[in-house]
Each structure stands twice: as structure tokens, then as C-alpha cells.
């Protein structure tokens, strides 16, 4: 799959790559000098801004104990986060964060500090669910709005995956023909540090109950379906002193899933995300440090799904629909930290980015029985009609969004027990309205064990290319859109004792200028507009209890006092029993979700009574890790151990009783060797 990695690189990325290489010698010399100076002095960590510190950190030990194979599954064990299989595009994993579907563009994903979000879909669904946690050194999570530091999309959370730099191989096999292979290489030489990894996982996908898809004739005599997939990742990086050059690529394919309305074994999704980054950091003075990065990212998505089965065969065949889009992003960031003293520090910086949608179209087909001619019922987009079999090429175009951002924050340790951090960001957007974001955090240590925190923060989500410029048959873009805004007020209490600790956070969240589709007009079109506001109240709790030197209990609980977006879970949590027994590491992890009942009587086009009703759900996952010597690790894990057949509400499934089947039991075994 990676045979076309470099052959398909666009001209502007080649130019950028050449510029980076041409400057590498000069930068490397400067980096070496900066490295020598860095050894002489280091900024006090107490002076760093609180906005640089993640709220939660998963290290390798925690990742292994929870047994999560991908990023979204891991986040089930944080308060405020919940992961399910949804429809969105191709039945990918979906993430609910504080009662909102994060796939709509409220989440920033970074890999080694490089943002890979783009305005193509304005989300990270092509990447986040599938990042192999076997490749992660740790995962940093910043909760709540964080736009001051990270800008667009940092409205609900920011996740930064720090990749592992080591020498190891991993082989894994599991149910439904699941197979995974990973190889990683790391070397230190006099020419710098080199690291490389490649990973591939594939299989038939977990089992999903066919009874949850009652309208498709393609499910005759089937009690379950699979969703075959292939996920590939590749990374190569070079670091000399404080300078680093990195390339990363991932590709995903998924088939046989439930689309907006119907299931078909030939429903198909494929995506590619890649970036080239150029990073430099240094410390020219004992009180001053800086970081810069220049990165180029491009993404491409091809997706087609069955919308409606042909009604009069063989005169009418099935109707298919899906996007064929591509975009790229060029981004530059710079930040400087000045430590005035151990009590006061300032951070300021800027961001420039240009995003382009350079390909757009819709794969649509309503083919005659000979699969050659299309019937007059077909609709066209960009004057092209493309078959399902070959996808074809979308029309070339150039839709561009450019933005500039400036931010500054201060961290002030007012007394021995009081700390105040405050920041502001000014965002200048050249295709829609400008934005101002603020963030304030006050923390007071009540005693040696407990502390109290008050925070106000803001974030924003920019309109996507589709929301701004779409000319599709039913969905029309609106160039006058303004960014969505999220404001959050939080009050938190933390207590840390010798054998236990607890964190409790209550929050009020306000969404304004929500971007959504209006009702159909007389031309049966829907226009993207800034519509109603939404409020959310919630309580989040996390606690750990060390039972003895070998066993620990860890739990989370989230409860919303108001309705959530799209009738998501209002109460959910997790409870884990984690053990360290010599060479044996075990984790018994339980995910708990409240019941969901949605009454749509009178709201459907036929005014029929439609009720979605799902009982409370308890899912039990288990992981056993055994380390043989210093280098070999055996792992066995099982998800949904007691085969709970469950489903979740999805408002897009109008023909399928408004729900999507969730994965049944899945077990896997892996062997890794580190050298």
C-alpha cells in the first residue's frame, strides 16, 4: 500500500520538502550550538504556563493495563469521553466529549506536537480511532476549550500522541481474521538520531448484529455482519540537536459497513493522511526558550455507500453516493517562553496556516443492469458522473482559507498557595469572521493534600469547506458563516492521599452560533447556517484507590444534568481493577453506560410512532500481560467478554430504526520483542 507514498506527493509538497532539506545543514549547525547552550541552563518547570500542562497523561504502563488497542478506546477511561461505533462516514468510531459529538470538529489531534486536523471534514475521523497505541510512548490529553494555545478545533479537547523511539517488533492475531504487524527502529549516530516505524493491521472486522439493520435485503440469512478493514501507518524522522525533520503517513480502508441508510457488502471507504514537519527548539538564554515548527499536511477521502436499493429490478439498480475530496494545509507555529522568575513567566507566539481544498466531487451512480449506462434519474456534481467500480477523478478546484493567530499568556504564582494563569488569542480569518478567545485558571492549594481550581475557557470551530462552499444537490454552503463558539466555566476539587486520590469537576458549557442545516426549502435544498445555541451542565469524577502494593482500583463517572446533543448518553463511567504481580500485569476494565430512550412520535415524515429504547449497558474488557525476561512481552485481551449485544442511537439512521449495532466479543493475542 505504501508503494505510492512518494510517487503521489503533490508538487507543492515536493517543493516544500526540497526547501527543508536545502536549509537543513544551516539549521543543524544552529541546532547543535543551541543544544550545547541548553546543557548549561534549564528553565524552571514551575515557571511554565499551566496551559502547557496536560490534564491527563497515559504512560505506557497505563496503556498496557487498560488494554486499549486504539486511541478512542483508551479515552473511555477518562471522565467526559465516550467512544461508540457510529455512522458519520463509513461507521467509524465516534467520540462524545462533554455531551457533544467530537467528530463534528471540536477535537484537535496531534502526533508529536503536529496537528493533523484539516478543514476537509473539520474532524479527525480518518486518524484518531486507528492510531496504534503500540506505537505510543504516552498520550497527553487537554480537556475543555484550549483555543488560546492551539487555535481552531480546540473547542472540547486536545490530544497529543508522543510516539515511541525504540527497537521492537510486534505480531498480533485475533478473532475475525484480525492480524497486526509492527516494526520499529531507532539509532543514535554522530549524524543524529534516526527513527522509523511501520505498522499494518487488517481483518474482517468485529461481529455486528444483523438484526439492527432490518431494511437491507443483502442481509438475508445473516445473523451478523463484518466490516473488513486495512489500516497502515509509516513514520520516519531524523533529529540533530534541537532540530527534527519528520514524515508520517497513514492509510485506512473499510468496507461492508452501514452507510447513512443501508448496508451493502461493497460500501467502501478509503482515506490517506500524511505530513512533513520541520521543528526547531532552543534556549538562547537561561530565562528564554523558543519552539518553531513548519509542517505540510494533506488528506484525501473517497467514500461511497448504498443509499437506496433499486425498486423495480432489473430496470432499476441501486443508488450509491459519497464524496471524493482532497485538501492540504501549510502551517507555521512559533512560541517563546520568558521566565522572569520562579514566580512569573510569560508565553507568547503566533500561528499562520493556509488550507486548500484542491479536489472535490461526489461519487454517484444509478447504473443500468449492464453496469455501463446511467439512467436519466442520475444527478451530477461538477458535471461528472462516476461509477462505483473505479471512482474516477474528482474535478480540480482551489478553495482556500488563510488564517493568522497571535496568543499570549502569563503564569503568576501570587503566593505559596495561589497560582493564576491567563491568556488571550486573536484569530484573523480571511474567509469568515475573526475570533477572540480567552482562558483564565486560578488554583489554590488548601493544604498539603487538596486543592481548588476555577477556570474559564473558550474555543471555536471554523466552518468546513463543505459548509462554506458546497454546491451539492441538497446541501448548499454558506460563505457568510461565522465560527461556532464554546465557552466553559469549571470548578474543580482535587484530593491526594497516600493510598487514594479523587478529582471532581463541575462545568457549565455554552455553545453559540452552532453550524447546522436548515429545513428543506421549496427547491428541496438545505442551507448551512448559524442556528440555535445550546447549554450543558455536567459533573465529572475520577478516583484511584491503592488496595495494596499489587492491586489498584481506578474509576470514572460522568453525569449530565441537561440533554446531550443527538441524545447521547447522559450518565456513563468506568471501573478498573489493575494488578502488578511480578512479571504479570493484568487489568479488568468495565465500561458502564446509562439507558437511552428517544420518542420520535410525530417527528418522522410518516408521523409514525418510532421509539428507540436501549437498556443500561455494562461492557467487560480484560487484558493479561506477561513479560518474559527483559525483552519479550505476551499479551492476551478480550473486549465485550460476556458478549453483550447492544446498540446506540444514531439520528441519521432513519430507515434502520435510528440505531447502529455495536461490536460483539473480540479477543486477540500479541507477542512483542524489544531489542
Automatic annotation (TrEMBL):
Its membrane topology: Multi-pass membrane protein
Domain TonB-dependent receptor-like beta-barrel: 217-640
SUPFAM superfamilies according to UniProt: Porins
Localization terms from the record: Cell outer membrane
Signal peptide: 1-30
One of the GO biological process terms: siderophore transmembrane transport
Coiled-coil parts of chain: none
Kinase recorded as keyword: no
Domain TonB-dependent receptor plug: 56-155
Keyword Transmembrane assigned: yes
InterPro entries: Beta-barrel_TonB (IPR000531), Beta-barrel_TonB_sf (IPR036942), Plug_dom (IPR012910), Plug_dom_sf (IPR037066), TonB-dep_rcpt-like (IPR039426)
Entry keyword set: Cell outer membrane, Membrane, Signal, TonB box, Transmembrane, Transmembrane beta strand, Transport
Top-level taxon of the source organism: Bacteria
GO cellular component: cell outer membrane
Pfam families xref list: Plug, TonB_dep_Rec_b-barrel
Name of the protein in question: TonB-dependent receptor plug domain-containing protein
Lineage: Bacteria, Pseudomonadati, Pseudomonadota, Gammaproteobacteria, Alteromonadales
